[in-house]
Amino acid sequence: MREARKAARNAQEVAEQRGIEAEPAELPGADLPLTTAQELWTEASRVAGVYRKALQILERDTENLARERDQLQAKTAKQDQDQAGLVRDTLQLAADQARLAADRADLEKELAALRRRTQEVAEWAAQTRQERIDSAAGFMDLERQHQRRLDEQRAAMDQDIDRSRAEAASAVARERSELDELRQHSATELEAQRAELEEQRRALRSEQNMLRAMAENEQENEDLARQRAELAVAAELQRRQLKIDQLTQTHETVKAHADRLREELDRRDAAARDAGHEDPARLQQQIRLLNEDNSRLRAQLANSLTIEDQQLITRLREDNALQAQQILALEHQCASLRTENNLYLISTTEVEELREHRDHLQHSISTHRKLLREKQEEVDSLLGGERAPRPFPGLDELDAEPGLQTARPTNRKTPDLDDLLDHIQRHIHADRILSSASSPLSFDKRDLRCLLGGLAMSRLHLLQGISGIGKTSLPKAFARAIGADYAVVEVQAGWRDRADLVGHLNAFERRYYETTFTKAVYQAGCAAHQDRPFFVILDEMNLAHPEQYFADILSGLENTGEQIRLQLSNQVLEPAPQHLSRQRGTHLPVPPNVWFFGTSNHDETTVQFADKTYDRANVIELPATPPAISPQPPQQRQPVSLKALEDAFDRAHRQHGDASEQILHFLREHLVQPMRDDFKLGWGPRLERQIRGYAPVVVAAGGSVGEAADHVIATRIVRKLRNRYALKDSDLRSLRNIVESSWPSLVRGTVTADNGPTATLALLDELAEARG
Question: What pLDDT shows up at residue 27?
Answer without folding.
Answer: 42
